[in-house]
Amino acid sequence: MARCVKPKGRLLFGVLNSLSFYNQKRQNNTESVYAYAQLFSPQQLKNLLEHYGTVRMRIAGFVLRNKWLIWLSPFWESLCRVVGSKKGAFIAAEVQL
Questions:
Q1: Which residues are CB-neighbours of 14 under 8 A, at least 6 positions away?
Q2: Bridge partners, residue 40, by sequence
Q3: What angle do CA 90, 83, 48 make, to 5 degrees?
Q4: Cβ neighbours of residue 17 under 8 Å, at least 6 residues apart?
Q5: DSSP letter string over 34-64?
Q6: How far is 93 from 46, CA to CA, in rounded Å?
Q7: DSSP 8-state class, residue 92
Q8: pLDDT exceeds 80 at position 11
Q9: pLDDT digits (tens, 9 = 90+) for 24-39
Q10: Strand 54-60 to strand 90-96: parallel, antiparallel, or no bridges (unpaired)?
Q11: What's the distance, Cα to Cα, between the start and end of the chain in Å?
Q12: C-alpha dihedral over 46, 50, 52, 53, to 10 degrees?
């Protein structure tokens, strides 16, 4: 993959976070396609990518456990980012080659 990128280019990745309660719940459902998915924690993804260059990550998709609290989602998302939570449902990573 990195061989196809021009010098000083970048690679972008998006993966599901194995630390997310939401993703764990979906993966535990044996009838779900997520039961067979490979999920990564932020540290696992960083370990895989840092060989190629500088890694930057953003974790997002902080899902509340109760559906009736959905109206709090924008606030919850901001709060989790500020405190540096690693348990969002989605990880976006960039590797600068």
A1: 90, 91, 92, 93
A2: 17
A3: 40
A4: 23, 39, 40, 41, 42, 59, 61, 86, 87, 88, 89, 90, 91
A5: GGG---B-HHHHHHHHTTTSEEEEEEE----
A6: 8
A7: E
A8: yes
A9: 999 999 999 999 999 9
A10: antiparallel
A11: 12
A12: 110
Torsion angle in degrees (nearest 10) through CA of 83, 41, 36, 80: 10
Task: Tell me the residue length of the chain.
Answer: 97
Which parts of 1-97 fold into alpha helices (H)?
21-28, 42-49, 73-83
Contact 96, 54 (CB under 8 A): yes
- pTM listed for this prediction: 0.89
**What is the Cα–Cα distance from 52 to 58, expressed in whole angstroms?**
18
Write the burial class of residue 92 (CB in 10 Å: 0-12 exposed, 13-18 middle, 19+ buried).
middle
70: its two tokens: 């959905």
Structure tokens at 33: 């396609």
Backbone CA torsion sign across 70, 42, 56, 2: negative
